[in-house]
Amino acid sequence: xxxxxxxxxxxxxxxxxxxxxxxxxxxxxxxxxxxxxxxxxxxxxxxxxxxxxxxxxxxxxxxxxxxxxxxxxxxxxxxxxxxxxxxxxxxxxxxxxxxxxxxxxxxxxxxxxxxxxxxxxxxxxxxxxxxxxxxxxxxxxxxxxxxxxxxxxxxxxxxxxxxxxxxxxxxxxxxxxxxxxxxxxxxxxxxxxxxxxxxxxxxxxxxxxxxxxxxxxxxxxxxxxxxxxxxxxxxxxxxxxxxxxxxxxxxxxxxxxxxxxxxxxxxxxxxxxxxxxxxxxxxxxxxxxxxxxxxxxxxxxxxxxxxxxxxxxxx
Length: 315
Hints:
This protein is mainly α. Helices cover 66% and strands 0% of the residues. The chain has one domain: Hypothetical protein af1432 (Orthogonal Bundle), CATH 1.10.3210.
């Protein structure tokens, strides 16, 4: 479902890099560990996978192969994972782990990936909080829109780790980044992400929400609620002080409510960091070359390769 369908066509770079997009190593480790435990439920796996935008995107994309999912199905991620089966989930985790293990970004790209992951999760939590405050019937859709709102940025970062990372870390606002992207690539990351999510969920405006996330609040009051939710979530996450007055009427949520939702999201993000063993408030992930995490993921890869090799030898 699309409110507006005239989206800018993405560069080939995005389509070529989608399978190479990195997942957060700590989340990968959680998924790999969970897949090894005999009593892990799909509900437990859903709670882990929804922490990482790439893993969630891959799961939804595979589940919707040949048919679009619906919002009602998206609200029950555990059922989507059950449909995929543990074998498919393990394959997604293993291929993502191999991608991480054998591709080591330099320090600049590492910092940019941290910024991406933090921005993704923070926006997801804020967007879900706004949806719940409005009693929006599909809070998981809102969370997903927030989690994937910057997926185009990650694709450009992977395809251009040096030049894009430098700009990504130095710009003062998302709008400034979009201007650079349009000049450099002929399209911005919002449009690229919108095109990628098109037709992923049949009765959702998630693609349009990504496309219009940077628009002025006065330009979106008559758009579908999800478009307004993500627009407000992005502006709330970025704390754009010059738009405080402009934001007041959008969805009927006042500044006090926005501040409360943002503070709750930050607390949830801090709790999330703690579960991953991250103890620095200004870091979403420890150094991506953390040898403890890397070694554990390497052990999982070796274990998988051993099992695969034994299965191949069987007549």
